[in-house]
Design goal:
Helix 7 packs across helix 8. This protein has eleven helices and four strands. The radius of gyration is 24 Å and the shape is elongated. The chain is α+β, with helices and mostly antiparallel strands. The two termini are 20 Å apart. The protein has a four-stranded antiparallel β-sheet, covered by helices on one side. 60% of the residues lie in helices and 10% in strands. It folds into two domains: 205 residues, no CATH class; 73 residues, Alpha-Beta Plaits (2-Layer Sandwich), CATH 3.30.70.120.
Length: 297
């Protein structure tokens, strides 16, 4: 058991470090050269660096996050806190280490916003995958740098929801970037970058879905279930449901199949019961027998 814990800890540290490197590259290559400020503590650090260039951006991010970490020690717990501190410090130092080698590197503002969002999101997504069960709370490190924690503390005091408080803080920081850099385009492109980053994080965490879930309501559930199991080699789950209008009880067949089998599934249902009701939806991620292993990150 001890050996497993050590191996898992090493794997998590390596994974978080790789994510930090990707995140730092996004900042050094695409964010800093065009003065994008994608919200949060990282965006605030870029604004402050515009006026106080003596202090590097990475060090500024660490300084801004330090009081928030101290204030949230009880809220986060030591186990989560050390991961957060490690990721924040490593990514910030990597930003400062890479920036000197990117002087003269300049990409069109639109391309910078798009690629900053994609690469930043990939980096944060990798960190999420190695952050354990508390990964969701870690968003404050990445795109918003510390404002998630600040929003949590403020929302409890001012009576607004967490989401609304966070939106107000991030909007204020992005707006300040427009004032600081005397530009209308920088805040607009920063919003684009932040949005793309959020989508990229979801993509890395959840993966690209190639599975479909089907709910089949039919008068012949046994026959449909049998053909799915024999012809598609897929498991099914059956449960009883009642119609909301008629109150009639029917068996519902539920199954998850790869996208390549969905046409065959519809053909099976049509052949057995042309009057069946079928609902098909995308599955974000499928874990278990016949699909990806449950322990896969």
């Amino acid at each position: 058991m001890t050996r497993k814990i050590v191996v898992r800890a090493i794997r998590d540290v390596v994974g978080i470090t790789i994510g930090c490197l990707v995140f730092a590259l996004s900042f050094a290559l695409f964010v800093i050269p065009v003065d994008l400020a994608p919200g949060g503590g990282s965006g605030l650090a870029i604004i402050l660096n515009h006026f106080f260039k003596v202090v590097p951006i990475g060090i500024t991010i660490i300084i801004l996050n330090t009081p928030l970490f101290l204030l949230s020690l009880k809220r986060l717990g030591k186990g989560f806190l050390w991961r957060s501190v490690y990721a924040t410090v490593v990514s910030s130092l990597l930003i400062d280490a890479i920036v000197p080698y990117t002087h003269g590197f300049h990409v069109d503002m639109l391309l910078s916003a798009v690629y900053a969002g994609v690469v930043m999101g990939i980096g944060i997504g990798i960190i999420f995958r190695f952050f354990g069960s508390t990964g969701g709370t870690f968003r404050f490190f990445g795109s918003t740098g510390g404002t998630d924690l600040l929003a949590q503390m403020l929302s409890e005091r001012i009576g607004l929801s967490f989401g609304t408080t966070l939106l107000i803080i991030d909007t204020a920081i992005i707006a300040c970037s427009g004032i600081a850099f005397r530009s209308v385009t920088i805040p607009l492109y920063s919003i684009v970058s932040l949005y793309i980053s959020a989508k990229a994080i979801d993509l890395v965490q959840e993966g690209i879905s190639f599975s479909k879930a089907a709910w089949v309501v039919s008068a012949q559930p046994e026959a449909i279930a049998a053909k799915i199991m024999t012809e598609l080699d897929r498991g099914v789950t059956k449960f009883t449901a009642a119609g909301g209008f008629t109150g009639e009880r029917k068996e519902v067949v539920f199954c998850v199949v790869p996208q390549s089998q969905i046409s065959h599934l519809k053909q099976i249902v049509h052949e057995v019961d042309p009057d069946a009701f079928v609902a098909i939806m995308n599955v974000t991620e499928t874990l278990g027998l016949g699909f990806k292993e449950l322990g896969t990150r």
